[in-house]
């Protein structure tokens, strides 16, 4: 069956798994594949998960697969969920270091950057107040760097250095890329590979990462979607195949 499953579909399942067991929290997926993953989690193993349309409505899916409005979520209430830890966001990262420090603001010296990006936005509040994961559709040395040019999302080293108030609700869960799934389950809270997508080797991930990476000799492969999950992905959630544009096979 694995021969019929695309890399994008493995990524969808890996993203969905980041919300497993979260219960009634607001999922905030950023990116095509994470959005599909969040809807898959809601339709399968985390039915309590709350989803939005990206604006002010809570949404769900009816029996025909159509998106339906379930409620209203004004911006002030959304911010209350963020500050109260009742949200799990999956952000992108232009740069990410081994401790999970994230940059989405600029490339180069921030006083005179070579490239201006999104800006810091809500990344500090996200990482210090609610669970945060990351989605990287192109795993490369340009993203996984020894040191980020500017800290937006706060990593484990900086949260620890800032003291108990910064680390109290600081929870970096997972990093999903087009090559692997990573987490921070190491003694020094640095990145390690917890699964490789089928067809990807450990050497390939090492060569695409700009710092030493922990990869066990017996690292497993990312789990395949079940037949029921594949049907939901292909027929209900993403019949247009937008996932394949973000992660081409």
Describe this structure in words.
Helices cover 29% and strands 21% of the residues. The protein has nine helices and 14 strands. It has a seven-stranded mixed beta sheet, with helices on both faces. Strands 2-3-4 form a three-stranded antiparallel beta sheet. A two-stranded antiparallel sheet has the order 6-7. A hairpin with a 2-residue loop joins strand 11 and strand 12 (180-183). Helix 2 crosses helix 8.
Which key phrases capture this entry?
14 strands; three-stranded antiparallel sheet; alpha/beta; 29% helix; seven-stranded mixed sheet; 249 residues
Spatial strand order of the main sheet: 1-5-10-11-12-13-14
Distance N terminus to C terminus? 16 Å
Shape descriptor: globular
Spans with pLDDT under 50 lasting ≥5 residues?
Answer: none
Q: SSE order in H/E notation?
A: HEHEEEHEEEEEHEHHEEEHEHH
Number of helices: 9
- Compute the gyration radius: what is it? 18 Å
Beta-strand level of the residues, as a percent range? Answer: 15-25%
Overall number of strands: 14
Biggest sheet statistics:
7 strands, mixed
Mean pLDDT across every amino acid position: 94
Structural class: alpha/beta
What is the share of helical residues?
25-40%
């Amino acid at each position: 069956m694995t021969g019929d499953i695309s890399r994008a579909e493995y990524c969808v399942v890996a993203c969905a798994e980041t919300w497993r067991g979260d219960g009634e929290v607001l999922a905030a997926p950023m990116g095509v594949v994470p959005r599909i993953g969040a809807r898959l989690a809601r339709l399968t193993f985390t039915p309590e998960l709350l989803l939005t349309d990206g604006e002010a409505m809570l949404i769900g899916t009816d029996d025909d697969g159509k998106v339906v409005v379930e409620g209203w979520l004004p911006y002030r209430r959304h911010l209350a969920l963020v500050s109260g830890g009742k949200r799990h966001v999956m952000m992108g990262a232009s740069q990410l270091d081994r401790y999970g420090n994230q940059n989405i603001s600029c490339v180069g010296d921030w006083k005179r950057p070579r490239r201006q990006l999104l800006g810091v936005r809500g990344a500090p509040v996200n990482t210090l107040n609610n669970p945060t994961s990351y989605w990287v559709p192109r795993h490369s040395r340009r993203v996984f760097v020894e040191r980020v040019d500017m800290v937006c999302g706060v990593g484990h080293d900086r949260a620890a250095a800032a003291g108990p108030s910064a680390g109290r609700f600081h929870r970096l869960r997972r990093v999903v890329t087009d090559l692997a799934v990573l987490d921070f389950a190491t003694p020094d809270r640095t990145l390690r590979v917890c699964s490789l997508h089928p067809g990807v080797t450990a050497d390939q991930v090492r060569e695409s990462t700009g710092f030493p990476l922990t990869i066990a000799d017996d690292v497993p492969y990312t789990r395949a979607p079940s037949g029921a999950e594949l049907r939901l992905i292909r027929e209900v959630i993403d019949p247009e195949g937008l996932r394949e544009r973000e992660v081409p096979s």
